[in-house]
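Exercise 7. Given the components listed, write out the predicted structure of the assembled complex. Treat all entries as one system.
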Amino acid sequence: MNPRNPKKDLVGIENLSVDEINQYLDLADNFLEVLARPIPIVPSLRGKTILTLFFEASTRTQISFSIAAKRLSADVVNFSQATSSVKKGETLLDTARNIEAMKVDGVVVRHSAPGAAKFLGEHLDAFVVNAGDGGHEHPTQALLDLMTMRRHFGSFKKLNVLIIGDISHSRVARSNIFGLKTLGARVAICAPPTFIPVEMKSMGVDVFYNLDEVIRDFDVIMALRIQLERQQGGLFPSVREYRTLYGLTRERVKRMKPKSMIMHPGPTNRGVEIDPDVADGERSLILEQVKNGVALRMAVLFIHAGGKIE
Amino acid sequence: MAWRCGWPFCSSTQEAKLSSILVKGARVIDPASNLDAKRDILIRERKIARIEKSVADRKSRVINARDLIVVPGLIDLHCHLRDPGRPDEETIATGSNAAIAGGFTSICCMPNTDPVIDNDGIVNYIYKEAARVGLCDVFPIGSITKGRAGKELTEFGELLRAGVKGFSDDGDTVADNNVFRHALEYSRVFDVPIFEHPLDKSLAQDGLMNEGLVSTRLGLKGSPAIAEELIVARDIMLARFTGARLHFCHISTEGAVNLIRKAKKDGVRVTCETCPHYFYFNDGVLESFDTNYKVNPPIRSEDDRQAIIEGLKDGTIDCIATDHAPHCQAEKELEFANAPYGMIGLETAVSLVTMELINKQKMSWLDVIAKMTVNPARAIGVKTGQISVGAVANIAMIGPDRKWKVSVDKIRSRSKNTPLLAKELRGRVKSVIIRGAVKYSMTD
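Answer.
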């Protein structure tokens, strides 16, 4: 099963077809088996150089990509700087030209500006994987979430997914919504209106404000990390009130549908959007997501680097 | 090479040697006299001498204008020349060159320069520099408040004596209700229009594009239509209250058009303009993340775009201005959030008007050209913008079917920030006569 003519870059989920998404997920399932071996390494990308370029603080995503690349025997160079290069007087275009001159095969980029990955992809011969561009997309996170849901529930038909939290600023929510809609799941969001971008309903997403009224209707409840600085922006009055209204507390979780599960892209604010014993509890798929993330990113790098299965 | 010096009268000695020009066989569009017919135009001594079905004059240089549309020299109420302040982006010289290539013979430059046009010294500089360049008229717009800081009024009287044609803090709304009230009241001494850039900053915040389905999908921070409409509503109330003349810059939303339509019906002294990019594009173009589409106010939804065209058709929108906003390439190449707002527009306005309004049969040439000549002339109280016997000979000749491809080489503005680069357009200015002299002829 060798991948069919992939697009050069993975910028977002919005323009992926069902087949394209399934190709990533199928291959990731295979790599999960590789990861279970005593020596979890394949030589697929030997001699390829992957650069992870993180202009925004992140630990787990960058580590996950690095491990994925190493499991495929690629050479990995990690670069991270919490500030945009623009502050040093170098533009993203300059950065791109420099990368081009150094001849890397693939670039994994995270940047605070929506469109940054697309921009790099247009200016580089190397393939580009978006590891989060501002509030736009985070395609590998969504793919690993889809992979986790598919492994657990088997299919997206009749799967009801509720996303709770700051949808406006969340690239994870956007990418998940695009992917879930493409695969035929029902998607809803629940948050105060200050966290909900306009025109959500015209994207085919149900919108709720009151979590307690709807919590029992869903198979998957995905909580998003609450950025505490949004409080200063006036989007919500306090962490305490947020937890009271939207937090996944032990009491609330008891009212969830039988066999329903909880997901979170991490890192969690324990005691804010999710209580510690819920995050570590039996309904939680959070560590499953992290584990699947490495396999999924192996699949993404493999496909875009033009790997071949012998 | 023409001899140049810094004194305005030098150019007039040069012009004294002008021969007369006979423009033959053109379709002449003159909204002021409601003329749309084949005419010959004889230009003599910087003025229009005759407009007749057939003029013969052996001594004149003849311009064959068959297949062309001849219109009064266009007047742009709204452009940014970055002079003084950013000569790497535009100057009065490069901006004037761009203007004439777009058919404009008069342009109003906005005061968000560095330093701001808030004193007569800067106004004098602009007139002197425009005269040295010797192409189109450059009319400065003075700032409403000192330093565009939104606090103290500028000296309207002295600025008007120096030659400003209106007042604006363009780039920013005058946010303080009381300051804006006083600006409107004080303008009544001179009966001069106040040009408002309507956008409530606290609602728009640092919005990067129109708030709507597309911004939601792209994750780009949205600037909502209500940010414009709230200020339009406030200003209409204040204009009614003060009785002053109010002109809205670059109207972009359906709600704003509706508010202005109603205000006009109610007799409030309000006029407004829109720009070609608000009736040519909708916010779907932002999917490219091309920073050349990042403008302020943002390119709006398809519903808004249709409402703008409706407003142009029914006369709610009086003028089409360019909001020509040059930015250097390095700054536009930044990430979307960090790139500045604005696109250039002087050289492509006629094409966008031709393609969207004329070729799609939404409006007649007479109605479109009125919004680029007599109506803006009226707004700033100048007598140009018409083709009539005895009027100053400012005319533009347009090849309405002429195809052209926008390229960096063809753009005469010093900045090249337009999303139309490499696009094929229709309708192009072929030649421009200013004060009886041919100042522009298309060369490619």
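Discussion: The radius of gyration of chain B is 21 Å. Residues 1-16 of chain B have pLDDT under 50 and may be disordered.
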